[in-house]
UniProtKB/TrEMBL annotation:
GO terms for biological process: adherens junction organization; calcium-dependent cell-cell adhesion via plasma membrane cell adhesion molecules; cell migration; cell morphogenesis; cell-cell adhesion mediated by cadherin; cell-cell junction assembly; homophilic cell adhesion via plasma membrane adhesion molecules. The lineage of its organism: Eukaryota, Metazoa, Chordata, Craniata, Vertebrata. Its main location: membrane. The keyword Translocase does not apply. GO terms for molecular function: beta-catenin binding; cadherin binding; calcium ion binding. Residues 1-94, 95-209, 210-314, 314-432 form the Cadherin domain. Cadherins are calcium-dependent cell adhesion proteins. They preferentially interact with themselves in a homophilic manner in connecting cells; cadherins may thus contribute to the sorting of heterogeneous cell types. It comes from Oriolus oriolus. Keywords: Calcium, Cell adhesion, Cell membrane, Cleavage on pair of basic residues, Glycoprotein, Membrane, Metal-binding, Repeat, Signal, Transmembrane, Transmembrane helix. InterPro entries: Cadherin, Cadherin-like_dom, Cadherin-like_sf, Cadherin_CS, Cadherin_Y-type_LIR, Catenin-bd_sf. It is a single-pass type I membrane protein. It is found in: Cell membrane. This is CAD12 protein. It comes from the Eukaryota.
Length: 619
């Protein structure tokens, strides 16, 4: 009786004329599944609980027939295709109540060990199934998921299986619809339950170590061959086999230890040094004697314990300095210590002066008892002139057993500081400078010394030049004679080597004298030179003397330079000397200055007629 749809037919006859236009509906094909109302054409389901899983589509043939007319009843037909829509009205069902699975004990965690399937006759999302393990025996070791393509339940392993521990597991799996239709809750629970039994298969397994990780300790410098620990592995299979041990050699570090192949004991193979390597990490492999291919591996960590064998030392090299104006009790350096040994918790370093330095009143060491110490001054001021460097021996001890100590020498340099304690200079050169002399002043002094040395060198070089200049001057005559000699002179006799009187006075009478500046081969009388006339030109006179000396083989190879400061005769400009000038300005005529143009007008006014000169008009 569920409504499906309504069909309607039309008749072209006149509805007012009899029953010709009255239509009656009937089903010719489609029974007993559907029925139709003859008057309204409403189609309804004829059977209850029609199942889509049985038949999905139906074809219904509908006839519409009128009720009268001369031609009798006329009819028309149409076909209606009806498709059933699926609803989630069927629960999933397991085809069997018990599923048996066999799983090897060597199965890996997370691997799929079996599949089960529940059947749901619905379609699409109405057929999606969700699987769950009922809490109980297998909830901790197994898990189940749904394959979205096949809607199968995939059982996976959560923990490893061990045949020797447990050989079988039983648990229940529930399958339910993922999408429920609330209209069909009254039909019943939409889920089903099945039992899964898993049998663990015994497999030949590798040995199993008693621990997942072994940690051991050994003191450094332990004698070679000392046993420091052991590892243990067992074959848990039914037919137990013996186990052999060996180190997994990967690098040279593994050679520091050996292992007994049968007992699994680990011993030292070399002397260990914690300062070189504080920890060793290597692997040990165990294999079955019956099947050497079956092996297992475990990591071993060996920590090397420290033995107090190194004394503490100053952690870093310090550059310590003290001011010359330092006061007693002033801390000039804070020092720390370091120990190559592994210092245990609470270890302390102590600082003190050595016995030979304790009696010297220069510096002291103040131990702060927190592994640091301060170097303090004990004097009121220090002098670089007296001592530039001080060497302070400091003894440092540790608190381990046995106690180790060392003496460390600090070098303290005396420096010049200002009043605030800021270091200005620690150089050795600065010790010998007077107080207050700056670097700039020192550079100026050195520069002056260099300049003086250069002047001295130049002076000596000029003194070494072999030059000799002779300059003869006369107050009566302004003529000069310069004579240059290239060899060493002979004293006063050289004054007679050249008679300069002839140049000074052309009318001089030459005396017949023998030259004494050279050694004549034979005694010769001087040549007779004609007297010079009074009106002889000085140029002709000089040329005459030049020719005579050029042809005279007895003349010395010397040069003479004569300067004549008097005027010759016949100059067009006449004499410009003030010697021949007029004695009075009245005798001079300056009227020609007026003819020289405007530039010489002022000179013409100054040196013109006296009556025409007016000083007030001169600007």
């Amino acid at each position: 009786g569920a409504y499906v749809l309504q069909v309607k037919a039309t008749d072209a006859d006149d509805p007012t004329y009899g029953n010709s236009a009255r239509v009656v509906y009937s089903i010719l094909q489609g029974q007993p599944y559907f029925s139709i109302d003859p008057k309204t054409g409403v189609i309804r389901t004829a059977l209850p609980n029609m199942d889509r899983e049985v038949k999905e589509q139906y074809q219904v043939l509908i006839q519409a027939k009128d009720m009268g007319g001369q031609l009798g009843g006329l009819a028309g037909t149409t076909t209606v295709n009806i498709t059933l829509t699926d609803v989630n009205d069927n629960p999933p069902r397991f085809p069997k109540s018990i599923f048996h699975l066999k799983v090897p004990e060597t199965s890996h965690i997370g691997s799929a060990i079996g599949r089960i399937r529940a059947v749901d006759p619905d379609f699409g999302k109405n057929a999606e199934i969700e699987y769950n393990i009922v809490p109980g025996d297998g909830g901790n070791l197994f898990d189940i998921t749904t394959d979205e393509y096949t809607q199968e339940g995939v059982i996976k392993l959560k923990k490893p299986l061990d045949f020797e521990t447990k050989k079988a597991y039983t648990f229940k799996v529930e399958a339910s619809n993922l999408h429920l239709d609330h209209r069909f809750h009254s039909v019943g629970p939409f889920k089903d339950t099945a039992t899964v039994k898993i049998n663990v298969l015994d497999m030949d397994e590798p040995p199993v170590f008693s621990k997942p990780l072994y940690t051991m300790e050994v003191y450094e410098d332990t004698p070679v061959g000392t046993i420091i620990g052991a590892v243990t592995a067992q074959d848990l299979d039914a037919g137990s086999s013996s186990v052999r041990y060996f180190i997994d050699w990967k690098n040279d570090v593994d050679s520091y230890f050996t292992i007994d192949a049968t007992e699994g004991t680990i011993a030292t193979n070399e002397l260990l040094d914690r300062e070189s390597t504080a920890q060793y990490n290597f692997s040990i492999i165990a294999s079955k004697v019956s099947n050497p291919l079956l092996t297992s591996k475990v990591n071993v960590i060996i920590n090397v314990l420290d033995v107090n064998e190194f004394p503490p030392e100053i952690s870093v090299p310090y550059e310590t300095s003290v001011c010359e104006n330092a006061k007693p009790g002033q801390v000039i350096q804070t020092i720390t210590a370091a120990d190559k040994d592994l210092s245990p918790a609470g270890q302390r370093f102590s600082f003190k002066l050595s016995s030979e330095a304790s009696n010297k009143p220069n510096f002291t060491v103040h131990d702060y008892r927190n592994n640091t110490a301060g170097i303090e001054t004990r004097r009121n001021g220090y002098s670089r002139r007296q001592q530039e460097l001080y060497f302070l021996p400091v003894v440092i001890e540790d608190s381990s057993y046995p106690v180790q100590s060392s003496t460390n020498t600090l070098t303290i340099r005396v420096c010049r500081c200002d009043s605030d304690g800021t270091i200005q200079s620690c150089n050795v050169e600065a010790i010998f400078l007077p107080v207050g002399l700056s670097t700039g002043a020192l550079i100026a002094i050195l520069l002056c010394i260099v300049i003086l040395l250069v002047i001295v060198v130049l002076y000596v070089a000029l003194r070494r030049q072999k030059k000799k200049d002779t300059l003869m001057t006369s107050k009566e005559d302004i003529r000069d004679n310069v004579i240059h000699y290239d060899d060493e002179g002979g004293g006063e006799e050289d004054t007679q080597a050249f008679d300069i009187g002839a140049l000074r006075n052309p009318k001089v009478i030459e005396d017949n004298k023998i030259r004494r500046d050279i050694k004549p081969d034979t005694l010769r009388f001087p040549r007779h030179r004609p007297p010079v006339e009074d009106n002889t030109d000085i140029r002709d006179f000089i040329n005459q003397r030049l020719q005579e000396n050029d042809v005279d083989p007895s003349a010395p190879p010397y040069d003479s330079l004569a300067t004549y400061a008097y005027e010759g005769n016949g100059s067009v400009a006449e004499s410009l000397s003030s010697i021949d000038s007029l004695t009075t300005e009245a005798d001079q005529d300056y009227d020609y200055l007026s003819d020289w143009g405007p530039r010489f007008k002022i000179l013409a006014d100054l040196f013109g007629e006296e009556e025409s000169y007016n000083p007030d008009k001169v600007t």
